[in-house]
Specification:
Blueprint: E1 4-10, E2 15-17, E3 35-37, E4 46-48, H1 50-61, E5 63-69, H2 70-76, E6 88-92, E7 108-111, H3 114-125, E8 129-133, H4 136-143, E9 149-154, E10 163-164, E11 180-183, E12 188-193
Parallel strand pairs: 1-8, 1-9, 5-6, 5-8, 6-7
Antiparallel strand pairs: 2-10, 3-4, 9-12, 11-12
């Protein structure tokens, strides 16, 4: 079985988006290089530096399913029915998207809570990894002991306020192993395994 990985770009002050949910400068590094790559959707190419591309190819190559919350699903309109990473998305919601135009045809599943979403994602992913988006859903997964690794794409910017990486209330006290560090341009990847 693959790992459950909490992943997102994050500011120096711990935010994954501004108060209006937009990433602002947190995503600038997705276009600051000369190496083109995509995750699951070839229509969404990125241009990053070579170290960033190497890290992301390895990381994304292991991902089978992504878990996100309804807020992100709504902001992105469900990525037009195409998973942004992996082959499937599990959305945590009490309000299934019955009027979503891709309902029933896109590889999206709706689950009532975070534990059910992670369990379903792991079933679908098999031996591949599951990513969980940062914010409230990621924080809930971490607090529930469902996360194996936390990966920060640390961006050298302070947002001042916004959506916290670990969601409302913050995480519990959890010990991690020393990080694996990959330095890109305008982003540093820090991968922390939960200490067993």
């Amino acid at each position: 079985m693959g790992a459950v990985v909490l992943f997102a770009a994050v500011s120096l002050d711990g935010f994954v988006g501004r108060d209006d949910d937009m990433p602002g400068p947190l995503f600038d590094w997705y276009g600051n290089g000369d190496v083109e790559l995509t995750f699951s959707d070839p229509a969404r190419p990125f241009r990053v530096t070579a170290p960033t591309a190497e890290f992301l190819r390895e990381f994304a190559g292991r991902v089978g399913v992504m878990v996100c919350g309804r807020r992100l699903f709504d902001i992105t309109d469900g990525w037009g029915g195409v998973p942004p990473n992996g082959e499937h998305v599990v959305v945590v919601t009490h309000r299934p998207a019955d009027d979503w135009p891709h309902r029933g045809t896109a590889p999206f599943t709706f689950a009532p809570d975070v534990p059910a979403a992670v369990e379903r994602a792991r079933e679908i992913a098999g031996d591949r990894d599951v990513t969980v988006t940062a914010g409230d859903v990621g924080g809930q997964a971490l607090r529930a002991g469902l996360v194996d690794r936390v990966v920060l794409a640390q961006v050298p910017v302070v947002l001042g306020s916004g959506r916290p990486y670990f969601g409302a209330g913050g995480p519990p006290e959890i010990a991690f192993e020393d990080p694996r560090v990959v330095q890109g341009s305008r982003v540093t990847f820090l991968s922390f395994d939960v200490r067993g």
